[in-house]
Each structure stands twice: as C-alpha cells, then as structure tokens.
Specification:
Blueprint: E1 2-3, E2 6-7, E3 26-29, H1 35-38, E4 52-55, E5 59-63, H2 70-73, E6 92-97, E7 111-112, E8 115-129, E9 133-142, E10 156-164
Antiparallel strand pairs: 1-2, 3-4, 4-5, 5-6, 7-8, 8-9, 9-10
Length: about 170
C-alpha cells in the first residue's frame, strides 16, 4: 500500500498457543535397545543395561537390578549380586534432572535397626505406570537372625520408588 509517497508494508503474525504436553511417565527396564535414551551420566552415574529407569519428565532415576548370581543359582548356591553397599541391588543408584546429565548420587539403600548387618536382600524388581505416577517396586527380605535368614526368609520387605506427574 502506498500513501503520500511512503511505502507501507504490513506483516501479520500468527501464533499458535498450546498448553505444554504433559511430561511422559516412564518406568521400565533398561535394555540394549533403549539404553541410549534411558541411561544418563554424571559424576556418580553407574546404571547399566538390566537396571530400571524411572522418570516423570523432570527427574530421572536408575534403580539397580536385583537378584542372585544366576550361574551359582544353577548349581543350587544362593550368592547375592554385589552392588556397592547393598548386597543384592534394588537400590537407587542414579538420580538427575532430565537431560542435565548431572547424577551425583552415590547410592541410596535401606537397612533394618540402623545396622548394615541387617541389609535388605531384594529378589525381584518390577515397574508399574499409572495415569498419575511411574513406579519401580523392589521386593525381597531382610536377614535378621534368629527371625529371618537366607534359608528361611520370614521378614518380607518392599521398597517403592515413585515419580508423580510433574
């Protein structure tokens, strides 16, 4: 449009405003196929394939796999896998902000009666996801003589790690 010798150029901007998509809740086992997207780094990151990933889109965590040495179990010998201070895994080993690669958590594990001698022996880890939270659940038992031992584990334990929708 020209008016009195000046050139007027009009621009129209269109902006599509949408609410941000809700962060995805994820609780799953780390596999060779998804490890590149699930494992993260930091000064204390130790998670790997076979461990469990948990995220609400803001934080991400790794719970280490649980169990006993499969090669020895095949021979009838129950020797636990060793994971730093916890004898069988099922513990929180990595924690960071999503995409920041800033894990500085060495390990978070539980004991009974404030004694590392009463460690929790996790035998199973599983994942659950609902509309409101992603959860990793570690089940096992505590050895606390004379009440519970490896041959007769009578004191069951469950540790639940959850990340709620952000």
């Amino acid at each position: 449009m020209v008016a009195r010798g000046k050139l007027w150029i009009g621009f129209t901007f269109f902006a599509l405003v949408t609410a941000p998509a809700p962060a995805q809740l994820v609780a799953e086992k780390v596999t060779a196929d998804n490890a590149a997207h699930r494992l993260f780094s930091g000064s204390d990151a130790i998670g790997g394939v076979g461990d469990w990933y948990l995220s609400n889109g803001v934080i991400e965590a790794i719970v280490d796999a649980a169990g006993f040495n499969a090669d020895l179990l095949a021979r009838g010998v129950a020797v636990p896998n060793q994971f730093l201070l916890s004898p069988t895994g099922g513990t929180l080993v990595d924690l960071a902000l999503v995409g920041a690669n800033n894990d500085q958590l060495a390990q978070l594990y539980s004991v009974v009666n404030i004694s590392p001698q009463n460690s929790l022996f996790y035998t199973n880890v599983r994942a659950e996801t609902t509309a409101d939270a992603a959860t990793i659940i570690a089940d096992g038992f505590v050895i606390m003589e004379p009440f519970s031992n490896a041959a007769k584990p009578t004191l069951a334990v469950r540790t639940t790690y959850s990340a709620a929708r952000a």
